[in-house]
Amino acid sequence: MFTGLIEEIGKVEALIDTGNGVDLKVRGPLSASDAELGDSIAVAGVCLTISEQDGDVMTFGLAPETLRRTSLGALEEGHGVNLERACLPTTRLGGHYVQGHVDGMGTIREMRPDGDALWVTIEAPAELLIYIVEKAYVAIDGTSLTVTEVTEDSFSVMLIRHTQPLITLPTKNPGDPVNLEVDIMAKFAEKIIRERMS
């Protein structure tokens, strides 16, 4: 379980085709500082398991399903990725409950400065938009953000000045893919309502 509060931006050191998937090597000094083999780290919002570690560099195995369902397959050497270690019982929940189980991908439609803030509009699949509502949470590449606007095919978030240098979203461009995880509470609510109506 994660909080959606990014701890550091890691650097992709290598992507190695194993024939059955990809080994992703990421440099993350903070994340690696107390990591052990088998630990879970959210990498761009995807919960991954450390399979090898060499100092600050952690290796994660990406299965074909992970490459199909997330934006990790589009990564290149040198790219930055949001990193967050799994939370502890004592962790402050300043964001929201993020599982690291990506629901799907969205595409950045627009990035618009507004004073020192940055508005970002993301096109999202209809099957995810039903769970995205104004003033609720959504995780974008693992970052817990508040939804500011929802249309029939997109939603928007606003990044305050403090947040912008701490995450990768401001470094992206229109057309880039992003990992989306909707609020698990919205999915639970929808399931309960659907079952009671059937």
UniProtKB/TrEMBL annotation:
Pathway in which the depicted protein is active: Cofactor biosynthesis; riboflavin biosynthesis; riboflavin from 2-hydroxy-3-oxobutyl phosphate and 5-amino-6-(D-ribitylamino)uracil: step 2/2
Lumazine-binding repeats: 1-96, 97-193
Lumazine-binding domain residues: 1-96, 97-193
Superkingdom as given in the UniProt entry: Bacteria
Listed PROSITE patterns: LUMAZINE_BIND
One of the protein's GO biological processes: riboflavin biosynthetic process
Entry EC no(s): 2.5.1.9
Gene3D superfamilies, sorted: 2.40.30.20
InterPro entries: ATP_synth_asu-like_sf, Lumazine-bd, Lumazine-bd_dom, Riboflavin_synthase-like_b-brl
Family matches, as SUPFAM superfamilies: Riboflavin synthase domain-like
CDD domains: Riboflavin_synthase_like (cd00402)
GO molecular function, one term: riboflavin synthase activity
Pfam families per the UniProt record, alphabetical: Lum_binding (PF00677)
Catalytic activity: 2 6,7-dimethyl-8-(1-D-ribityl)lumazine + H(+) = 5-amino-6-(D-ribitylamino)uracil + riboflavin
Swiss-Prot/TrEMBL keywords: Repeat, Riboflavin biosynthesis, Transferase
Role summary: Catalyzes the dismutation of two molecules of 6,7-dimethyl-8-ribityllumazine, resulting in the formation of riboflavin and 5-amino-6-(D-ribitylamino)uracil.
Quaternary organization: Homotrimer.
Protein name per Swiss-Prot or TrEMBL: Riboflavin synthase
Protein source organism: Parvularcula mediterranea
